[in-house]
Design goal:
Blueprint lengths: L1 H6 L11 H46 L19 H20 L6 H6 L1 H28 L6 H26 L3 H32 L11 H9 L2 H14 L4 H38 L1
The structure holds protoporphyrin IX containing FE.
């Protein structure tokens, strides 16, 4: 990775005596950034993969049993017998979402890309198609049936779907134009949005275990629900921007900040994943697949 080796470069204006210390500090920051990014992607993959498997096990499993009404056990209004287009939208969005969560992180592993560009291209096509299906399916449902939380949640999910579509299109556009720096940056933004779908559940779980149901109502129109209609993806986009800029050599402070944010996020995800796997995802995956 050419960018990483730049981190070890001495800063301009330093004396020859200061260069070894600056090289060491730069090298440590570059390693710290790489390790914290790998840890975050690893934990995210494991956790998002479990959530993806759960979606296929539960929503796919009940659909193949012909028991679509059981979708409403998790969230009222997901299935309405007299709204076939909305059902098709939300159902295809489950499939697209499950595929995205399972395959997404593979695209970010440099090793796969370096070994086989063909695998990277084919997975990329599948990934972007799944993102478009998840986004268009979710937007169709939002337009036709509306979300459970009403206008604020509709706006939050509407923006989420539109951003996912935009980032998917941009990722492909820049790959075709062979502008790989921009392609990579848009791919990271898309991944940050995909991760939002799963963070939404994790963040609710962490909130409930810390504060009970404060700010939440069954119809998702409490203060915390309104906050969450946007907070499950906008902060991730900010972290993604920080990461993209840190890799483009924005300076030592941004690198240290990025290492801190990436590590704190990883720790939070480990706790959330443990809780969700024990309570929800694990039992459903075991029932269908084991
Ligand atoms: C990786 C991508 C995604 C995954 C894995 C995913 C997953 C899910 C799941 C599992 C549910 C069912 C509720 C639950 O179990 O909590 C759901 C509901 C929903 N999703 Fe997604 N989703 C994704 C992306 C999107 C996008 C891009 C939109 C765009 C608008 C969207 C809109 C919705 C809507 C509107 C609902 C129903 C909410 C309600 O009834 O109030 N999702 N999603």
């Amino acid at each position: 990775m050419a960018e990483d080796s730049d981190a070890a470069a001495p800063q301009s204006g330093s004396t020859p005596a200061e260069e070894p210390a600056q090289n060491l500090a730069g090298g440590l920051r570059a390693t710290g950034l790489r390790v914290s990014a790998i840890a975050l992607v690893g934990v995210t993959w494991l956790s998002a993969g479990l959530f993806g498997l759960y979606i296929l096990a539960y929503y796919g499993g009940t659909a193949s049993d012909g028991a679509l009404e059981r979708w409403n056990d998790t969230l009222q209004g997901l299935y309405e017998a007299n709204a076939p287009l909305a059902t098709l939208g939300i159902g295809s969005h489950f499939l697209g979402g499950g595929v995205l969560l399972l395959l997404g992180p593979i695209q970010l592993i440099p090793w796969v890309r370096e070994r086989s560009i063909a695998v990277h291209r084919w997975l990329g096509r599948l990934f972007v198609t799944a993102a478009a299906i998840a986004a268009v399916g979710g937007l169709t449902f939002t337009l036709l049936s509306g979300t459970i939380g009403g206008a604020v949640m509709d706006a939050g999910f509407g923006l989420y779907g539109s951003l996912m579509l935009l980032t998917a299109v941009q990722t492909v556009r820049y790959a075709r134009a062979r502008q790989f720096d921009a392609h990579r940056a848009w791919g990271i933004r898309l991944f940050a949005l995909v991760v939002g779908s799963w963070l939404y559940r994790i963040e609710y779980g962490l909130w409930f275990s810390a504060f009970g149901e404060a700010g939440h109502t069954d119809s998702f129109n409490g203060a915390f629900d309104y906050f969450m209609a946007f907070a499950f993806y906008l902060p991730n986009l900010a972290v993604a921007e920080l990461f993209i800029r840190a890799r483009r050599r924005a300076g030592p402070l941004t690198e240290v900040l990025a290492i801190g944010v990436l590590s704190a996020t990883t720790a939070l995800l480990v706790v959330g994943t443990y809780f969700f796997t024990r309570e929800f995802w694990g039992p459903e995956i075991a029932r269908r697949f084991l």
